[in-house]
Amino acid sequence: xxxxxxxxxxxxxxxxxxxxxxxxxxxxxxxxxxxxxxxxxxxxxxxxxxxxxxxxxxxxxxxxxxxxxxxxxxxxxxxxxxxxxxxxxxxxxxxxxxxxxxxxxxxxxxxxxxxxxxxxxxxxxxxxxxxxxxxxxxxxxxxxxxxxxxxxxxxxxxxxxxxxxxxxxxxxxxxxxxxxxxxxxxxxxxxxxxxxxxxxxxxxxxxxxxxxxxxxxxxxxxxxxxxxxxxxxxxxxxxxxxxxxxxxxxxxxxxxxxx
Amino acid sequence: xxxxxxxxxxxxxxxxxxxxxxxxxxxxxxxxxxxxxxxxxxxxxxxxxxxxxxxxxxxxxxxxxxxxxxxxxxxxxxxxxxxxxxxxxxxxxxxxxxxxxxxxxxxxxxxxxxxxxxxxxxxxxxxxxxxxxxxxxxxxxxxxxxxxxxxxxxxxxxxxxxxxxxxxxxxxxxxxxxxxxxxxxxxxxxxxxxxxxxxxxxxxxxxxxxxxxxxxxxxxxxxxxxxxxxxxxxxxxxxxxxxxxxxxxxxxxxxxxxxxxxxxxxxxxxxxxxxxxxxxxxxxxxxxxxxxxxxxxxxxxxxxxxxxxxxxxxxxxxxxxxxxxxxxxxxxxxxxxxxxxxxxxxxxxxxxxxxxxxxx
Lengths: 259, 360
Ligand SMILES: Nc1ncnc2c1ncn2[C@@H]1O[C@H](COP(=O)(O)OP(=O)(O)OP(=O)(O)O)[C@@H](O)[C@H]1O
Ligand SMILES: [Mg+2]
Hints:
The structure holds 2 protein chains of 2 kinds.
Chain A: E1 5-14, E2 17-27, E3 32-36, H1 43-49, E4 60-68, E5 71-72, H2 80-86, E6 87-90, H3 102-106, H4 108-112, H5 119-132, H6 136-139, H7 152-165, E7 170-174, H8 182-195, E8 200-204, H9 208-214, E9 217-223, E10 230-237, H10 238-243, H11 248-254
Parallel strand pairs in A: 2-10, 3-8, 3-9, 6-7, 7-8
Antiparallel strand pairs in A: 1-2, 1-4, 4-5, 9-10
Helix pairs in contact in A: 5-7
Chain B: H1 2-5, H2 29-48, H3 53-64, H4 66-74, H5 77-111, H6 117-121, H7 135-166, H8 171-184, H9 188-203, H10 210-235, H11 238-246, H12 251-279, H13 283-288, H14 307-316, H15 323-354
The site of magnesium ion has 3 residues of chain A, from α1.
């Protein structure tokens, strides 16, 4: 079910501003690809262009191709709503729906799309998704309470549960652990490990150790200066990029000498 | 190097003392309390005795000014300025509250004795002198404002949704915003004349109709609803929309199921304020809905009495003897206030039921 994604000659714009230039990368199925790089180099922008969330920003557009499962996501016949159903996303800041309970948050995907389902099916989805996100034990006896009443780390795991409840093929995660303590972080890293048997996962992180721990492949983005577009400097298997990067900039970044 | 690391030992460069400079003592608590109490007493005396409200207020103010004076002596200039400004702010607050309290107390004092079951359940049909009631005007007000709400809320809400959720700030949006601003400033009599002219075009000269009143009121309501809903929709964090889109939910469904419920409490409050704003309108209703003594529940057929118009005509043409009619006008005014208060309570209830905060 998981898709691999091929990106060719992708330029990403905010209005006239070219934010990310000429990306060519292949993201294999059933693996974790980490995007690293200094702040402002366009990691989030690139990630958001993979499920067409980018174009929701006023004036934002792309040119180039993003092919998932043989289908160009930016073809004129493709509905971005369908793309997002297949390519889910977890945001940097936890964003549970404040009007919904914990259970309703998990079911938000199907429910907001007015999918009819039996109560037992719904309960199954809630339990399965929350278990996978490592949250079930903490919330199982307060599923009816508002989702915004959880701690930040719990909210983030709730958002992950919500994203996997729609069973996407690809999961994009934008710094999912940046607001979390080490314990919640390791819960989520374990989850990523487990999810990769079924999903294609792309994760943005500022944490080198995390990239090394969770990812199979790593892509390094960089930018030459303020106002310049970000570029994909190099990408490859994580061990290789970390132990023997082919670009000097990558090595400098990974060793913490800048960025 | 060393000069940076070692502190100069000069005695003059010690940190400034945080101790109160000599001669500055705290203001005795009892003194301020006593001054405030005397001031309040002067105010109360002014309103309750022959001294007169204005003189009482002036006296109270003069006494209150002793606090900054005392503070100048005891505490020094900075504290004294602070206390002086405090007195000014409290004064401004009192001045703002006086008309409100005065209106409320007068309306309650004069209107309450009139209220009775009979007052609410009879109309003025065939009533001369004492007796009679405002049933017809109450029903008229409820029907006309109800229809005005039915017309304004969808139009206003959809306009706000367009402005916030769909438009990209282009000419349509800018035009709409400009027109809303212009509409906000329309005098209510002009709204009434507009509705009248519109209905004359359709039904001919001399038309009187409850629905026309609703149209006139919605001209006044729509801009308020647009503005308040717009502000409320703006407050919904974009992250929630993105969260919904990222689940593969379409724009419209996101609006209906995520954005509107999140903003609902505020929107309801805005609509209530808009209703409260128009429910007391007299001039437009005088023109298009007219006045009658009997109950008329059909907004499409003929004159319809409303509370403000009833109060107006009961005062202007009281008949002989005039007192019962004037009493009824006060009763109608109080009823109007009560309706607005009930409306606020209902709105609060709805906001509470749908509030996103942690409830239960
Ligand atoms: N909504 C926007 N409108 C215009 N420009 C934007 C917008 N969002 C981001 N940018 C610009 O695009 C570039 C890339 O930003 P992006 O958020 O993708 O960086 P990032 O690599 O995710 O950084 P960080 O690590 O800090 O999250 C930056 O120059 C930024 O200023
Ligand atoms: Mg980012």
